[in-house]
Amino acid sequence: MKTVARVGFALLAAALMAGAADLKVDLKKEQVGKTPVTFEPMVGTWVVAEDAGEKVIMIDGRPWVASKDNPTKLLLQTARKLYGTSNEELMDNAKQFAYYPVAVLKGLDNFSDGTISMKFKTVAGDSDRCSGILFNVKPNGDWLAVRYNDTENNVALWEFHNGMRRNMKFSDRAKPFPLDRSTWHELKLTIEGASLKTWLDGALALEYTLGSEPAAGRRGPPNEDLYPKNNPVLRPPVAGKVGLWSKTDSTSYFKDYVVSPKK
To answer: In this predicted structure, what is the pLDDT of residue 62?
Structure first.
């Protein structure tokens, strides 16, 4: 079964990169209560759950408080699976990485131009209630992510580099996105060269040009890591693994994950 799954993922990835088809993650063969087969958890407790008779991927934030001080074991195991090595840089990032549960889509090693979309439902969380799309994941553990935050009612683009996460852009504070937590919502990211756009339920929420020089913030000059010359994950083109993203004790459901290459 595992061999068949690996072959299936490889064929899907080949078709995707050739521009032949979208990659639509099918959860029908997943087992409720088990770790997902379609995604590789790197940090956090990711399990298959059921919502209204439909299988979904759940990030379970309840164990986060108990496990946050010991992220290294899962990172070591996952680094070997994804990159064939324990990857010392990834281990160096482990302490900060532990705050951000992520799961990487299997069978797709290098996604660039196109669209990533998924549906999410916010379930619970005391510290945070976040659901996001992970992309541009590098072998050292660096990544980019766009996310919706149910506690702030906004969308944001974040980068993770050298073990630290920093904000690149928030959606307009004057136009919050209060969403009904009892229903499903769509988060979509479009990548066209250096142009990144994020859509929430069909509304454009955020735009960013990768490689842009950072502007000074309320606290003064930007951090040196926010300059593309100092941070490879901020330099176009996008090229890396993709997946799901969350934060601390968030509990969310995910489904209908689709990766569409630029035609």
So the answer is: 87
